[in-house]
Design brief:
Length: 123
């Protein structure tokens, strides 16, 4: 599992893991994303619901990625709320299976403990 430990500073590694998560999402690399997620992680989104555990989270993500022709997230801003929590303001551009283009903005909070994502919250 890829665990980032930059200078033994959890805050730095939290931001680095958050940025890596967005980069992997843009690349559609779900297998590496799976390695970043704690087995008992939770995921909460107003659009998709609440998920528990890496299996359920990855099942949801896989279906979401398959429903889109293209997905691209841009990090508009990123800040550490605590040494464990990063908040990202983002813009997502997507084209769905029918060719419909969408642009939406949102806030994503990611909790990282011991180099793994423990919780993702999307608003």
């Amino acid at each position: 599992m890829p665990k980032l430990n930059t200078m033994n500073n959890n805050q730095c590694s939290t931001q680095a893991i958050t940025q890596l998560y967005f980069e992997l999402s843009n690349a559609g690399d779900l297998s590496t994303i799976k390695e970043l997620i704690d087995p008992q992680a939770t995921y909460s989104s107003a659009n998709t619901g609440l998920y528990y555990g890496v299996f359920d989270i990855m099942t949801m993500m896989t279906a979401f990625f398959k429903s889109q022709q293209t997905l691209n997230w841009r990090i508009d801003s990123i800040q550490a709320l605590t040494e464990y929590i990063t908040e990202v303001h983002f813009t997502c551009h997507s084209i769905d299976a029918l060719g419909q283009t969408t642009e939406r903005t949102g806030i994503e909070r990611i909790v990282v403990v011991d180099g793994l994502i423990r919780h993702i919250e999307v608003r």
